[in-house]
Amino acid sequence: MRLSRYFLPVLKENPADAQIVSHRYMLRAGMIKQQQAGIYSWLPLGLRVLRNIERIVHEEQQRAGHIPVLMPTMQPADLWRESGRYDAYGPEMLRIRDRHDRDMLFGPTNEEMITDIFRAHVESYKQLPMTLYQIQWKFRDEVRPRFGVMRGREFLMKDGYNFDLSYEDAMHAYNRHMVSYLRTYERMGLQAIPMRADSGPIGGDDTHEFLVLASTGESEVFYDAAITDLKFGDREVDFQDRAALAKIVEEWTTPYARTDETHDVALFHKIPAERQKTSRGIEVGQIFYFGTKYSEPMGAKVNTPDGEVAVHMGSHGIGVSRLVGAIIEASHDDRGIIWPEGVTPFHCGIVNLKQGDTATDAACEALYAGLRKKGLDPLYDDTEERAGAKFATMDLIGLPWRITVGPRGLKEGKVELTRRATGDSEELSPDAAVARLAEIYAGF
Ligand SMILES: Nc1ncnc2c1ncn2[C@@H]1O[C@H](COP(=O)(O)OP(=O)(O)OP(=O)(O)O)[C@@H](O)[C@H]1O
Ligand SMILES: [Mg+2]
């Protein structure tokens, strides 16, 4: 992409109404535009990050053996009357009436609808286990939408639902989700800690929330410092291997980690004092096991050799749009965003220090073509702006790598490769810069 032809409406001033850094930077970097309280348009740069997050979520869900579907945002009230949640859900549910006076709603979550799909098409236990998921917009009429996309009213969520024959099978599904989530967040450059949670309005027994530590988080969290040393890394996982998954889950759930809702002071104080940590956290996902809560009243049953059985279910969410903000909260400095390589909107920036100079322009074009040939997606600042302004924009929008091209360096056959996170620079030939970036991104 060439900046002169892109749509990147950056703001020079700090927007007055944005209270936290991710919201400020998302507005300043031209990633989103607010349309109503808690409702945003995604502008091109923001959309690229959102799509990258979606892609990682899809890849990791499918790696775990889960099957994508797409349900509508609009749901009939009658389905929710079957589960008893139409009345129970309260004012967070946006209720709508169509021209035939039928009650509808904009889905805040999809347990009822997925159960309806399941009961319509699945009859035999032989079709289990099954986990279906989607990435779809949700609407919750939050009392206080705030912090930009972190607490929106319309927001993008991955929601997955497992259908299993027994408690043991459902716990394997639970573990599959926990392990796949650990991988998912790490690929986004985040450490998200699974914490024992409270089941809330969805209701259930076993549940963990995944929290990213950040001072602006809405939850108060308590944890054993030992948990922050855990890394998933590139270990191979066989998602069918129950024992192996259970072991990974044990590894991550043994150190104390809880939100204020489930915090147990006595247990916490058993940890060595120097490891007792209190912080704030952003909830970026949650997994639930809730048994037959929906399958029983809605008649989602399968035939087995021993008769009909209501399936054991769980639901598992990832806050896809919230993650864009959470990643910025976890990775920025006072000049702007620092995207982790896994989600960056462009792989690198190219800054032309002397636009219009034949040799400099040609070198930038060659770099641009060379990077694209390696499958990389550069953002080339080919505008007439001053160098200082070009650097400020690149720093603000947070591309992890920048190649700076100017006449002085080119005389020696060199360009400069700079890492956004550290500011470390290195002079090397354009070919070497392309090769280096290709090597870096081969891991993502
Ligand atoms: N209003 C919102 N805006 C953006 N993301 C949200 C919002 N509500 C929930 N999410 C994301 O969707 C994920 C799954 O939804 P879930 O039903 O667990 O939310 P929740 O527990 O009600 O969230 P919260 O406690 O933050 O209100 C959450 O972990 C969170 O990351
Ligand atoms: Mg939750």
UniProtKB/TrEMBL annotation:
Keywords per UniProt: Aminoacyl-tRNA synthetase, ATP-binding, Cytoplasm, Ligase, Nucleotide-binding, Protein biosynthesis
Oligomeric form and interacting partners: Homodimer.
Localisation per UniProt entry: Cytoplasm
Enzyme kind, highest EC tier: ligase
EC number of the protein: 6.1.1.15
Protein family per UniProt: Belongs to the class-II aminoacyl-tRNA synthetase family. ProS type 2 subfamily.
Gene: proS
Name of the featured protein: Proline--tRNA ligase
InterPro entries: aa-tRNA-synt_IIb (IPR002314), aa-tRNA-synth_II (IPR006195), aa-tRNA-synth_II/BPL/LPL (IPR045864), Anticodon-bd (IPR004154), Anticodon-bd_dom_sf (IPR036621), Pro-tRNA-ligase_IIa (IPR002316), Pro-tRNA-synth_IIa_bac-type (IPR004500), Pro-tRNA_synthetase (IPR050062)
Phylogenetic lineage: Bacteria, Pseudomonadati, Pseudomonadota, Alphaproteobacteria, Rhodobacterales
Catalytic reactions of this protein: tRNA(Pro) + L-proline + ATP = L-prolyl-tRNA(Pro) + AMP + diphosphate
Transmembrane domains' residue ranges: none
Any single GO CC term annotated in Swiss-Prot or TrEMBL for this entry: cytosol
GO BP terms, alphabetized: prolyl-tRNA aminoacylation
GO MF, any single term: proline-tRNA ligase activity
